[in-house]
Amino acid sequence: MINKSEQEHALAAQHVFTENNEVFIKKTTAKGQSAGRMEETEWFPVNFQWIPVMELRRKMRYESNL
């Protein structure tokens, strides 16, 4: 079970986009009191690379033979 402090710091990434071959995830955090609550949105690049399935299989086969 996740405790409250872990929930507050969890990354809620529901949106992604790509730009210049980079993948970004969206993090939105709430600022202020509940009545005047504002959201702050940040985009973070992630280490992610698309490769074709056949290339992945070739690489896996090669690495398993080392």
Give me some keywords for this one.
66 residues, three-stranded antiparallel sheet, single chain, alpha+beta
Describe the protein's architecture and organization.
- The protein has 66 residues and is α+β, with helices and mostly antiparallel strands.
- The protein has one domain.
- The chain has helices at residues 4-8, 53-64, and strands at residues 16-19, 22-31, 38-46.
- 0% of the residues are buried.
Compute the number of strand runs: 3
Our count of domains comes out at 1
Give the uncertain stretches in residue-range form.
Answer: none
Give the H and E element order: HEEEH
How does the overall form come out from the CA principal axes? elongated
Q: Which class of secondary structure composition applies to the elements?
A: alpha+beta
Instruction: Kindly provide the radius of gyration, computed on alpha-carbon positions and rounded to a whole number of angstroms.
Output: 19 Å
- Taken as a percent bin, the fraction of beta residues is 25-35%
Average pLDDT rating: 77
Tell me the span between the first and last alpha carbons.
Answer: 41 Å
Major sheet, described briefly? 3 strands, antiparallel
Q: Tell me the helix content.
A: 25-40%
Which strands sit side by side, in order, in the main sheet?
1-2-3
Q: Helix tally?
A: 2
